[in-house]
Amino acid sequence: MTLIGRTRVRGVETLSLDAPERRNALSAALVGELAGALTDAGRDTGVRAVVLTHTGNTFSAGADLRDPPAPEALVGLLRQLVELPRPVVARVTGHVRAGGLGLLGACDIAVASHAATFAFTEVRIGVAPAVISLPLLPRADPRALARYFLTGERLDTAEAARTGLITAAGEDVDEVLAPILDGLRRSAPEALAETKRLLTARVLETFDRDAAGLTALSARLFSSATAREGMTAFLERRDPEWVV
């Protein structure tokens, strides 16, 4: 079963998260297949840019609680998006939760339709947005991240754009996307690669400095009794025991 759709139009490779029945949750299999597709796109000189999108009404619900990827694998995927020698543009027309926001943070540009919603739901199941903070902390508004990391509140597209979680939004996401892709197609590939290196230098410094510690933190939290209660409550559609 293929979990990543691939199409190409005029040098733009579109990779679609294609597990809508699981809300495109980041399973070990999906993370591995997406990493492979990105490797192929990075090696192919015919690819000028990558669009990362989805099928169904959810871009990604975050980690698959039944088959989660190893924290090291998710770190590797996020770093791969940041380091890819092609611009990566996220195209979002649905909901984004938890680890899905890490994917957005690792993309160079993110556009969304007004139907999209966003939330860092980790604290509500007893864990922390540890690994996904690697691309987000250097790029998004720190005061906004403090609020939404700590509360798990839902954001609309206007707030997501204001805080730097996305680049732009509109009623028709493809109308927003069209001039961006046109600009990328008109740009020299070598110049795009060097410009991306300039833009991602601080993000990669964060990976170099913090990835090992945050990977260990994520593994510890996900194996805790608190996380087991939170995940069980989520799957049983009830409040966890700590809710007052």
TrEMBL record:
Organism field: Streptomyces prasinopilosus
Family according to the record: Belongs to the enoyl-CoA hydratase/isomerase family.
Highest taxon above the source species: Bacteria
A single GO molecular function term of this UniProt record: catalytic activity
NCBIfam families according to UniProt: PRK07827.1
Name of a matching Pfam family: ECH_1
Lineage: Bacteria, Bacillati, Actinomycetota, Actinomycetes, Kitasatosporales
UniProt name for this protein: Enoyl-CoA hydratase
